[in-house]
Amino acid sequence: MSPLEPFGARLRHAMDARGPLCVGIDPHEALLSAWGLDDDVRGLERFTRTVIDALAGRVAVFKPQSAFFERFGSRGIAVLERAVADLRDAGALVVMDAKRGDIGSTMSAYAETFLRKDAPLFADALTVSPYLGYGSLKPAVDLARESGCGLFVLALTSNPEGAEVQRAVRAEDPAGRTVAATVLAHLAADNAGEAPLGSFGAVVGATLGDLSSFDLDINGPLLAPGIGAQGATPADLPAVFGEAVRNVVPSVSRGVLRHGPDTAALRASAERYADEVRAAIGA
Q1: CA distance 262 to 59
Q2: How many domains does the chain have?
Q3: What UniProt keywords apply to this chain's record, in alphabetical order (predicted)?
């Protein structure tokens, strides 16, 4: 598969081949402790290496949370750099969960950190925040197109606090759309005409219940955190995402990682989630 093929096409191929699942890599202190590891760089590296060895060749998408590596400084970032390279070498796609958002040259620098092909942290996609205005993301959108990468833009997040911004109605919008609906409309425009799937996706929580009042048909992927420890199940996906469910990238972190460090248990859990998602969405 050419690295220049757009992210949306690569994502569709990966999920068809390996199953519709994204595994988050979130090495927070409690999880390291549960694995019998110290909360230090050695523990971080052992944890990350175990996840990669167990799952990199089997799971379609991984979502490392940058903050859990950044908290260890440069040595933690070095672990993340190696993890991203090893995951991609194993044929998996990497979504860097960094939720970057800024304007102008600063947004360009964030984009170059994660979306420039020769960057140490080059990933297949990046999570970004649109709350300085969707147009502020243009440097990331442009570089993603150039590099064959994707973006996942925060739209309808699962945290309760998100609603006060995301579901606010824009008074200046003649249609009276919410902020989230505006973000989704921008994404649909950026994905127009792309096949089999656009490269610009939305982050939409799997725990949110009926979202039929929002147009989720953006011709792009819908990254859906909240399955597993946060309470959502694969069986909930059709009710939440409706006709757009085929484009959902369900994300599970603790639901899989709590079974480590046993390699067989990690693999069994990931396979079970992927099978349950296939059954739920009719894939």
Answers
A1: 16
A2: 1
A3: Decarboxylase, Lyase, Pyrimidine biosynthesis
Which among 249, 150, 261, 140 is positioned nearest to 198, based on CA atoms? 150
Residue 1 inside a domain? The answer is no
- CATH number of the CATH domain containing 164: 3.20.20.70
Domain hosting 234: range is: 7-281
| Residue 164 within any structural domain of the chain | yes
Q: How far apart are CA 150 and CA 126, in angstroms?
A: 7
Q: Which residue has the tokens 């693999």?
A: 267
Distance, CA of 176 to CA of 181 (rounded, Å): 10
Q: Quick one: how far is CA 171 from the chain centroid?
A: 31
Look at residue 143 and give its three-state secondary structure.
helix
**Exposed e or buried b per residue across 152-183, where buried means at least 16 C-beta atoms within 10 angstroms of its C-beta:** bbbbbbbeeebeeebeeeeeeeeeebbbbbbb
Residue 110 domain-assigned (yes or no): yes
Beta strand 93-100 with 61-64 is parallel
Residues 192-237: tens digit of each pLDDT: 999 999 999 999 999 999 999 999 999 999 999 999 878 899 999 9
- Does residue 140 lie within any of the structural domains? yes
Neighbours of 278 (CB within 10 A): 15
pTM (two decimals): 0.96
Identity (one letter) of the amino acid at 179? V
Helix and strand tally (H, E) in the chain? Answer: 12, 8
For residue 261, cis peptide bond before it (omega within 30 degrees of 0):
yes
Active site annotation includes 117: no
User: CA 192 → CA 117, 163, 200, distances in Å?
Assistant: 25, 27, 10
